[in-house]
Known about the structure:
The chain is of the alpha/beta class. It folds into three domains: 34-197 and 250-296 and 376-517, no CATH class; 201-242, no CATH class; 304-366, no CATH class. Helices cover 32% and strands 12% of the residues. The protein has helices at 55-58, 94-112, 178-181, 183-195, 201-209, 215-218, 222-235, 273-291, 310-325, 331-341, 377-395, 410-414, 451-461, 465-468, 501-516, and strands spanning 2-9, 15-22, 44-48, 59-63, 84-88, 120-124, 143-148, 155-156, 159-161, 168-176, 371-372, 375-376. The strands form four sheets. Strands 5, 6, 7, 8, 9 and 10 form a six-stranded mixed β-sheet that branches. A hairpin with a 2-residue loop joins β11 and β12 (375-376). The longest helix is centred in the first third of the chain and has 19 residues, at 94-112. It starts with a strand and ends with a helix. Bound molecules: zinc ion. Zinc ion (ZN) is lined by residues 271, 273, 390, 394, 400.
Amino acid sequence: NTEIAFEAPVSSGQLVTFHYSLSNLAKSPGYSPREADDRVGYFVTSYKDLGQFGVEEQYTRYINRWHLEKADPKRRLSPPKEPIVFYIDHTVPVRYRRFVRQGIEYWNKAFEEIGILNAIEVRYQDSTTGAHMDKDPEDVRYNFIRWLSNDISTAIGPSRVHPETGEILDADIVLTDGWIRVYWNESHNLFPDLAMEGYGPETLAWFDRHPEWDPRILLASPSERDHMLQQRHLQGIRAYGGHPAAMVDSTMYGDDEYDGLVDLSQHNGCCMAAQGKGMELAMMRMHFEMLGLGDTEVSEPPAIPDDLPPELKEMIKKRLEEAAKEGKLNPEMMEQYGSLIGNVEPEGDDEPETTEEPKGDKGAKEDPSDLIDGVPDWFIGPALADLTCHEVGHTLGLRHNFKASSVYTLDEMNSGDLKTPITSSVMDYNPTNFNYGGEGQGDYFMTSVGEYDKWAIAYGYGDDHKKQLERCTEPALQFQTDEDTWGPDPFSRRYDFTANPIDYANTRMRLVHDLRE
Ligand SMILES: [Zn+2]
């Protein structure tokens, strides 16, 4: 492929770099396009043929998918003729590589169920050994997972697709470490968006006419409200209240939230999964802090990250000291946190349970968790694998499924009896399962692809795709996507969680309440 980049002024007068990537489109022999169906969430390649007379016949809609087939179709299980190969770019920090690999390989389970073994292969590019360093991530022949350091939470999984067949030819995912590092300013950026979550274009249009009822105004500080109202009057009335779906500029795909919906094909839209994960990291800090104090039995008290902001560390220290005074810390907790708080003896009529021994190498028990950028590896690892799996899902052709998080109840997720991951799809924006104050603690994240994901892969890549559709009424296979999040179904929402979202909201409120106390 040939890469061309040039700078040109845009209407605002700013210089912007335009980048084109041109490649020769070769049809892959033996590929047959697969028809799209609204019940299964794939990105779609579609076109209109005005040579046909009937309106219905004019439209052709194919799903976007890879050309993947068994090497030996007669076998129940067979390796693929040609696997989908992902290279993990050498810019991905070594400490994160295994989790990125894990997230990619989660999908192999779904392919195995339709008889294709090791459909996806992962290779490491490495600058020290020189492995695969001759391959360029910009090259259309190679699929790369790349890594950027930034201070915003982003992750994208775009792909290049044959415009006549929907065959996916190349995919490159960009992950960033922003969501791991910038949790402290995330709330400021995310809350105004979250407050508007689920409002459709009609509601936004109504808010434009009645700004005094707009949550963004109601939740603003009283000293700002009059100014904001004034600004709104100056701005005037916008189409659909400025809803992102009405703002889509279809000339460039992937830069707007609802890209492609207003045009013929959706190659891929904007993905905000990483933003949600950034928020969850902030929740993690609160959750772990409270776990160190609560009445909940914790088998392994979480380590306190070294690089916490000093004021947060001070706060934790103070709370731990208080808890120690009240005799609320068990011996494991004392061992974990002893060095931070020193020797504090329980007061009151409780028998002192803490030992008089000086802090330090008592028992010489190894800290079981390894901190990665200030976060325990057993937490950040699965979080990154989950996010990677979501983005890889986009590059396999899959769209978001915001219904998936509502399949299981909070109790089911944390009962220890659940035989599946905590929701039915990695393609939702699944919050982290912090069961604060509840019984038991299930997986925090998706630890594999879900039931819906497997079914979607069976539709897109399996032999008898029409047969798969017969299962479409099963509760775990429901599909609702971006444009459904402002529709009538209260369970197809982004960032909601569990079969009863109120239960989930209550655990979070409990956490906030206890922290404030
Ligand atoms: Zn996404």
